């Protein structure tokens, strides 16, 4: 199992834009309204911290590889090599480069109308890291940091995310 995790602040930011672009799910008047819902576990698909906590039980399982979105953005070649090795797949240099190029956010966004139809524009917005800085107030940032520590502090997934997101930023 490949478990891809992401900075909770960017998860919230991305989901805010996604929610407001998808009519079947609840949308939010303001970022502040969304943030309250995100922090009080009132999201249609549940609480991100609870999701991470449930997966943390399997973080040491030899059949689970955890990688962060931030790792893949920072070094996609190494990320693909590690994923291929985990699954026991041997890639030539050409195949490796092909996978890296085709799995890039830019490539997927470019092809999103073909692969996802009308939802392509909603699913593939920016694909960046740290977009949360454009929405979070200082108080919201502190509240999410505190919630992160309460839910994920000292856990394997929490340590991995904290290192990738907070220590390498």
From TrEMBL:
InterPro entries: P-loop_NTPase, Sulfotransferase_dom. The keyword Transferase applies. Keywords: Transferase. Residues 1-155 form the Sulfotransferase domain. Signal peptide: none annotated. One of its GO terms (molecular function) is sulfotransferase activity. SUPFAM superfamilies: P-loop containing nucleoside triphosphate hydrolases. Its EC number is 2.8.2.-. Belongs to the sulfotransferase 1 family. PANTHER family: SULFOTRANSFERASE SULT (PTHR11783). This is Sulfotransferase. It comes from Fregetta grallaria (White-bellied storm-petrel). The gene is Sult6b1_1.
């Amino acid at each position: 199992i490949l478990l891809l995790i992401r900075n909770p602040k960017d998860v919230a930011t991305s989901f805010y834009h996604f929610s407001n672009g998808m009519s079947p799910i609840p949308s939010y008047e303001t970022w502040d309204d969304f943030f309250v819902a995100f922090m009080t576990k009132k999201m249609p698909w549940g609480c991100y911290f609870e999701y991470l906590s449930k997966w943390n039980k399997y973080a040491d399982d030899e059949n689970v590889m955890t990688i962060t979105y931030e790792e893949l953005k920072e070094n996609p070649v190494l990320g693909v090599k590690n994923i291929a090795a985990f699954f026991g797949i041997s890639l030539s240099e050409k195949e490796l480069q092909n996978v890296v190029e085709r799995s890039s956010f830019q490539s997927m966004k470019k092809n999103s109308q073909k692969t996802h139809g009308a939802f392509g524009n909603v699913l593939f917005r920016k694909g960046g890291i740290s977009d949360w800085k454009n929405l979070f107030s200082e108080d919201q940032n502190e509240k999410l940091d505190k919630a992160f520590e309460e839910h994920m502090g000292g856990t394997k997934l929490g340590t991995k995310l904290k290192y990738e997101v907070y220590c390498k930023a």
